[in-house]
Structures are given as structure tokens and as C-alpha cells.
Amino acid sequence: MPRPSCRPQIVEAAVSEFHRLGYHGCSVDTITKAAGVPKGSFYNHFSGKDELAAEVVGLYQSRSAFREYEPAGDESPLTELRGRFRAVAERHRDRDFARGCLLANLGAELGGSVPRVRDAVDEAWRGWTARVADLVTRAVAAGELPGGVRPEAYARFLLDAFEGAVTRAKVERSMTPLDDFFDHAFGLVSAGGTRA
Fold this sequence. Notes:
Blueprint (H helix, E strand, L loop, with lengths): L6 H15 L6 H8 L6 H4 L3 H14 L2 H4 L8 H18 L7 H9 L4 H27 L9 H22 L3 H11 L10
Helix pairs in contact: 1-2, 1-4, 4-8, 6-8, 7-8, 8-9, 9-10
């Protein structure tokens, strides 16, 4: 009988270990020990740590609280957008926000030095940006944001500001940077200066 695949256990363990130790800080041995599988089984499933890290990025993004957020049926686009970001912030707080965002951590640690992981992180950012831009477009159409707002550029700004706040919250071990993000990113741009 064929042996069951260890791949899911390895990927799950790697999400936690990369988040805890960083890419360079954890070895294949660290990951397989955390997964409870023989080290040799790693190479039955992955060509190297970079392939595993790219898969981890995809899994992490697929489980994002931004994606999982369930808007109320009567939520306006801007309220939904704020709610989605708030859900991510709350998840960071509830799951030890001192670890920060795995995407930002890997991006900062690796830059362009591991192309496979860089490409996976870039793809994740682009997907998230597109989802934010869609909500921004809808908020502009609903009159919640000024007509001059450029959805793609504003989406990039929101993500960059949010990830910067997450990183600072990680360093300060405080939610204050995230509170500042919500006060300013949403409170200052809504139509007529009203808060979202």
C-alpha cells in the first residue's frame, strides 16, 4: 500500500515555523521535527525550502482574515473595507501580534534574494491589492470616497500603510500603530471628512 503523503503536515508546520523563526532561521530539520515526520520525507515532496516557502505564502494568504470576513448584508463598500482590515488587525492581536505579518516578514527578510518566494509574496500582494481596489472603486461610486481617488493607487497605499502599522505594532508590542492606521487611513479620506 502507498504511504500517506506527509506534505500537508510539512506545510502546516512550516507556516508556524517560518512565522516564528523566519526563512533563514528555520531549517528543513526544524520544520520536519515540528511536523513530526522524518527529515528524508521532505525531499519526497519539495525540491527545497524555497518551494515550500512559496506554498506557505499561498496557504497563509488563502486563510487571511481579509478574505474570510463576512460583511453584513447592508454594509456600504467603505464600511466593508474597514471591517476587512479590522478583522486582519484583530487576528494579529489574538494570535500574538508580536510575530507580525508572515508576508511582510518574508518580504523584508528576503527581498529579492530568493526569487521563488519573492514571486509568491508579490503575487499575494497583487491579489490583495486587487480586492482592496475593487472595494475602493465601489466606495467611490457610492460617494463614500472622493471622485478623484485612484483605486489602484489608494489600494496600494492602504496595504502599505497597514503593513507598516503591523510591523511597528510588532516592534512596539502595542496596538497603537494599528489604531492610528484606522483613524487616519479611513477617518481622513471619507467624503466630507466624516469617519467611515
